[in-house]
Design a protein that fits this description.
- By secondary structure, the protein is an alpha/beta fold.
- It has a single domain, classed as NAD(P)-binding Rossmann-like Domain (Rossmann fold, 3-Layer(aba) Sandwich).
- 28% of the residues lie in helices and 17% in strands.
- The strands form 2 sheets. Strands 3-2-1-4-5-6-10-8 form an 8-stranded mixed β-sheet, sandwiched between helices. Strands 7-9 form a two-stranded parallel sheet.
- The protein starts with a strand and ends in a 20-residue tail after the last strand.
Length: 253
């Protein structure tokens, strides 16, 4: 069991991470702006820090992070643009300020658009329309890559409040979309590549519960997922549904 700090534990994904982490017996701390939003039945079983991640000083945040073996960040929305980028930078800087032996294993949330589209050397976030909303995921990935942290970046498509499928049923891939991409895709013009990428999104609409379970199952320092983007997809032949995924606030694609 881990001494685990969850940031953004009252959000859509954070609630699932919190519930699963407590159920698994982890020693859980949370950092939230409004503790009243935490589930009543869990408050006595966790340590609560009330703080605004957007304004907290790096030193103060580092003091809270110190002593934890793992950190899962569920805070921030890609639709917040620069605010989201600054928030992730603040968290990364706070962990970097700690001595290497004090730094936790870290999970951050990105989106499918920051994954490589097969072996083409291209990413969804570089395509027209996609980059207009999802550019913060690329900035956050670049910030993590420039750090020496033991990080993992979860990159699902849109997430939904639906029953878990179980992580054993999901397709996972490091750094690339977790489904086959035609060999000719690398030669496609941007607009056709956009259509190809969009056609894959329904396969990557993942339940929040499964996304939470993937992160909690991989908290071991320097494991196979360390310093990788982690793509998730539904079982072969299955497609999720989430209307207006590209414009929905908080969409991770």
């Amino acid at each position: 069991m881990k001494r685990l700090l969850i940031l953004g534990a009252t959000g859509s994904l954070g609630r699932h991470v919190l519930q699963q982490a407590v159920a698994a017996g982890h020693q859980v701390s949370v950092l939230v702006r409004n503790p009243a939003k935490l589930p009543t039945e869990l408050r006595s079983r966790i340590t609560v820090h009330q703080m605004d991640l957007g304004t907290v000083a790096i030193g103060a945040l580092a003091d809270i992070i110190r002593g934890h073996e793992a950190l899962i960040n569920c805070a921030g929305l890609v639709t917040e643009g620069r605010v989201f980028v600054d928030l992730v930078d603040r968290i990364v800087s706070s962990v970097e300020s700690l001595a290497p032996a004090e730094r936790p294993t870290c999970w951050f949330l990105g989106g499918a658009a920051v994954l490589d589209i097969g072996p083409t050397g291209r990413r969804g976030v570089e395509l027209p329309k996609v980059r207009d909303t999802y550019w913060p995921h690329l900035k956050n990935f670049e910030r993590l890559s420039a750090s020496s942290l033991d990080w993992r970046l979860l990159c699902p498509g849109p997430m939904v409040d639906q029953p878990a499928l179980g992580t054993a049923n999901l397709r996972m891939a490091p750094d690339q979309l977790p489904m086959p991409i035609p060999a000719f895709a690398g030669k496609l013009p941007s607009l056709l590549m956009l259509l190809l990428f969009a056609s894959k999104v329904p396969q990557m609409i993942i339940p929040y519960a499964d996304a939470a379970a993937v992160m909690l199952a991989h908290l071991t320092p320097r494991d196979a997922m360390s310093r990788h983007r982690v793509g998730l997809a539904l079982p072969v032949g299955m497609r999720g549904k989430k209307d207006t995924w590209a414009a929905r606030p908080g969409s991770t694609a």
